[in-house]
Design brief:
232 residues, mainly alpha, 0% strand
C-alpha cells in the first residue's frame, strides 16, 4: 500500500510540476502536451514518466540534449515523500492528501514567483469545508480559527504596508487555520514565524538575502503547518 501511495504521489507531483509552471504564466494545464523549454519538442509519453524518465534520460532532453530543470523531479519526489509521510502518520488520510496537493502548489509558486494563486486557496477552502461537513464538527468554530488567523496576518500587512506580509498569505491563512482549529492554528502560526525568522537570519548571515529583502512567507506557513500536523 505504501508503494502505491508513493507512486500516486509521483503522478500527482508530475501534474503539480506542470501546473506550478503554467498557472503563474496564465497558461492552462489542460491544453497541450508538455514541451522541452529549450527546443520546443513535444515530450512523448515514454519520456514523461514521473521521476523514472528523468533518471533514464540522464536529466537531458532526448532531442536537443540540453538539461531538464531539476525542479520537475524534485517536485515529483517531494510530493511522493509528502504523500507517504501523510499516509503513515495521519488518520483518515484522504483529506490530508488533498490538502497536501494544495500545500505543494503554494510552496512552489511562492518560492519561484512570490505569489499564492487564488484558485489554490479556493481549492483548499473547498476541501476543508467538505471535510468539516462530512465529519460533523462545528464549522463555525473552525471558521473562526481561519478568520482569526487571517485577521492576525492582515494586521501585519496593514502595519508594514504590505512589506512584512502579503495578501496571498492572509488568504492562505483562512483554509489552513480552518483545518486546524483554534488551538493548533495558534501553534501553526507561531511555528511559521519561528521557522521563517530562523531561515531569514541564516540567509542574511550567509549572504543569501539582504536585510530589507522581501522573502516569501508562504513556504514557512507550509512548513509550520506540516510541523503542527505531525507534532502538534
Amino acid at each position: 500500500m505504501i508503494l502505491l501511495i508513493f507512486i500516486f504521489g509521483l503522478v500527482v507531483g508530475s501534474f503539480l510540476s506542470a501546473y506550478t509552471w503554467r498557472a503563474p504564466r496564465a497558461k492552462s494545464v489542460k491544453k497541450g502536451r508538455s514541451k522541452c523549454v529549450h527546443c520546443g519538442h513535444e515530450i512523448k509519453c515514454r519520456d514523461n514518466i514521473p521521476l523514472f524518465s528523468y533518471l533514464h534520460l540522464g536529466g537531458k532532453c532526448r532531442h536537443c540534449g540540453k538539461k531538464i530543470s531539476l525542479r520537475y523531479p524534485a517536485i515529483e519526489l517531494g510530493t511522493a515523500l509528502a504523500f507517504t509521510a501523510v499516509f503513515l502518520t495521519q488518520g483518515g488520510f484522504v483529506t490530508p492528501l488533498l490538502i497536501t496537493v494544495g500545500l505543494v502548489a503554494v510552496f512552489v509558486t511562492d518560492v519561484e514567483h512570490q505569489i499564492i494563486l487564488d484558485e489554490v486557496v479556493f481549492y483548499l477552502v473547498g476541501v476543508v469545508l467538505v471535510s468539516l461537513l462530512i465529519s460533523g464538527q462545528s464549522v463555525y468554530l473552525f471558521l473562526f480559527a481561519g478568520l482569526a488567523s487571517a485577521l492576525l496576518l492582515l494586521s501585519l500587512n496593514i502595519v508594514t504596508s504590505g512589506r512584512g506580509m502579503g495578501l496571498g498569505d492572509v488568504k492562505l491563512a483562512i483554509p489552513l487555520g480552518m483545518s486546524l482549529g483554534p488551538g493548533p492554528a495558534l501553534v501553526w502560526l507561531l511555528s511559521s514565524f519561528v521557522v521563517g525568522g530562523i531561515t531569514g537570519l541564516l540567509l542574511i548571515a550567509f549572504g543569501g538575502a539582504r536585510l530589507k529583502q522581501r522573502i516569501a512567507f508562504g513556504p514557512f506557513m507550509v512548513i509550520g503547518y506540516a510541523l503542527t500536523w505531525f507534532y502538534g
